[in-house]
From TrEMBL:
It comes from Halopolyspora algeriensis. [4Fe-4S] cluster binds at residues 278, 424, 475, 478. This is Amidophosphoribosyltransferase. Binds 1 Mg(2+) ion per subunit. Mg(2+) binds at residues 325, 387-388. Its cofactor is Mg(2+); [4Fe-4S] cluster.
Length: 530
């Protein structure tokens, strides 16, 4: 059975207080699972999700299996907003699944929060959390409809897709898994279902007593296994293992299904691995204190900065980062160039999703909601400003203008990733192709558009070299357009493939390149965004 004490009536997507935040790539989701009977699994999951908050800030949820039932609690908001002592104390059991969500398929509504839940015909519960994005969602929806698989759901929405309630790719998988588990059990059903999924998926799911974890054959999104003294943990990032005191055991292999219960840990291969890890995890998505495929994210970012300085040197007085994600690359740039490093921008650490609709007056503040210049540091200086990426360019345009107004003599922008020219279908929400500034302009065009004195992006070769991954084992499709997993036309609709696109249609269309070059302090970033 499922108990969901949170309020499903709250279906409004949270409004961002900082419109310029929407000019950055949006993380996908964070997943966490723990099997540790006798431990406070809900609390462990809470702290695991807390460490993964950067991967999704729209919703959070935890399911707990106690041997006889599965309880799910989820709601819109940050992990610390959704859960308190009382709620966590009510979630008792030996196995838990946690999820922090940013919507990559399905809008940011309560119904789409995870873990998603289904009951099998025998009344057994199944809770599932998913990081990544499938690219055969339309096909899976048709299967769910054909098989009548959308069994018992907690969802209440009525999307216009002919499928009773599933509004996310994850929900479809949960429905199919619950249906197929009737005859063969969840483990066998998963081994048969997983090879039919296309796209990126790092999934954690459980019934009343067993924890499962699966990673797509390309291993696009990270997923790691950790050991507790009396149990096991799986998580999107190693940093989440650290925070709950779990030791890193290994990565879950691409094409591997793990099952953990009182019989121990079982591993099975459901597909041959063809590793294509997301290179953008190193640039921006993952925490700096995480290690992916044996390589420290922080060290990668510092190395990117060094290589960037070699590729695009600058005559300048001071290197400053755009905090926080630009910081390690700025340190590397300063080390390599010999130019002094300093903090010229102060970030408001508490800017996030506040659930407060910003007024038009507040929207006009744009970037100043997030970053404020240290005038005494900047005044009279030739600056190198290091940022992680440029998506639409509005943030950088606002930033350059703000730094000049604060007294900078010159502003040289250096970017720790190559130009983003293609959308991601594997779980990262960039702008639509038409909105990507580098899709419509060459480098000098982008430089002029953002108003910088000079501009340099790290080359793709150098980025990959900094990650220390073999070229043929990474996905870099948003930079080079080479998608390792083919994307059917109908799945190129993006996150609203299962829903009435409504406002999202505008950004979902991957139309021909058109450059949108509004001006101002980044406030215009909010226009036309889902
Ligand atoms: Fe990562 Fe870009 Fe590939 Fe998406 S397209 S998985 S963001 S490298």
């Amino acid at each position: 059975m499922v108990t969901d004490p949170s309020d499903p009536g709250n279906t409004d997507a949270a409004a961002p207080a900082d419109p310029t935040e929407q000019d950055t790539p949006r993380e996908e989701c964070g997943v966490f699972g723990v099997w540790a009977p006798g431990e406070e699994v809900a609390k462990l999951t809470f702290y695991g999700l807390f460490a993964l908050q950067h991967r999704g800030q729209e919703a959070a949820g935890i399911s707990v299996g106690d041997g006889s039932q599965v309880l799910v609690y989820k709601d819109l908001g940050l992990v610390s907003q959704v859960f308190d002592e009382q709620v966590l104390a009510s979630l008792r059991g030996g196995v838990a699944v946690g999820h922090t969500r940013y919507s990559t398929t399905g809008g940011g509504t309560w119904e789409n929060a995870q873990p998603t839940f289904r009951t099998t015909a025998q009344g057994s519960g199944l809770a599932l959390g998913h990081n990544g994005n499938l690219v055969n969602t339309a096909e899976l929806r048709d299967r769910v409809v054909a098989e009548g698989a959308d069994v018992v759901s907690t969802n209440t929405s009525s999307p216009a897709n002919g499928c009773d309630s599933a509004t996310t790719d994850s929900d479809l998988v949960c429905a199919l898994l619950a249906t197929h588990a009737v005859d063969k059990g969840i483990e066998q059903a998963a081994l048969e279902l997983l090879p039919t999924l296309r796209g990126a998926y790092s999934m954690v799911f459980s019934d009343e007593s067993t924890l499962y974890a699966a990673r797509d054959p390309y291993g696009v999104r990270p997923l790691v296994l950790g050991r507790l003294e009396r149990g096991w943990v799986v998580a999107s990032e190693t940093a989440a293992l650290d925070i709950v005191g779990a030791s890193f055991v290994r990565e879950i292999e691409p094409g591997e299904l793990l099952a953990i219960d009182s019989a121990g840990l079982r591993s099975a291969r459901f597909a041959n691995p063809t590793p294509k890890g997301c290179i953008f995890e190193y640039v921006y998505l993952a925490r700096p204190d995480t290690t992916i495929a044996g390589r420290s994210v922080h060290s990668t970012r510092v190395d990117i900065g060094r290589r960037l300085a070699a590729e695009y040197p600058a005559e300048a007085d001071l290197v400053i980062p755009v905090p926080e994600s630009g910081t390690p690359a700025a340190i590397g740039y300063a080390q390599e160039s010999g130019i002094s490093y300093g903090n010229g921008l102060v970030k408001n650490a508490y800017v996030g999703r506040t659930f407060i609709e910003p007024s038009q007056t507040i929207r006009q503040l744009g970037i100043r909601l997030k970053l404020n210049p240290l005038r005494e540091v900047i005044r009279g200086k030739r600056l190198v400003v290091v940022d992680d990426s440029i998506v639409r360019g509005n943030t950088q345009r606002a930033l350059v203008r703000m730094l000049r107004e604060a007294g900078a003599l010159e502003v040289h922008v250096r970017i720790a990733s190559p130009p983003v020219r293609w959308p991601c279908y594997y779980g990262i929400d960039f702008a639509s192709r038409a909105e990507l500034i580098a899709n419509g302009l060459d480098m000098d065009g982008v430089r002029r558009s953002i108003g910088a004195d000079s501009l340099g992006y790290i080359s793709l070769d150098s980025l990959i070299a900094a990650s220390e991954q073999p070229r043929n084992r990474v996905c870099a499709a948003c930079f080079d357009g080479e998608y390792p997993i083919p994307v059917p036309e109908e799945d190129r609709l993006g996150k609203y493939v299962l829903e009435d696109p409504g406002e999202g249609a505008e950004s979902a269309a991957a139309g021909p390149a058109e450059t949108v070059l509004p001006s101002g302090y980044g406030a215009e970033d909010a226009v036309g965004r889902p």
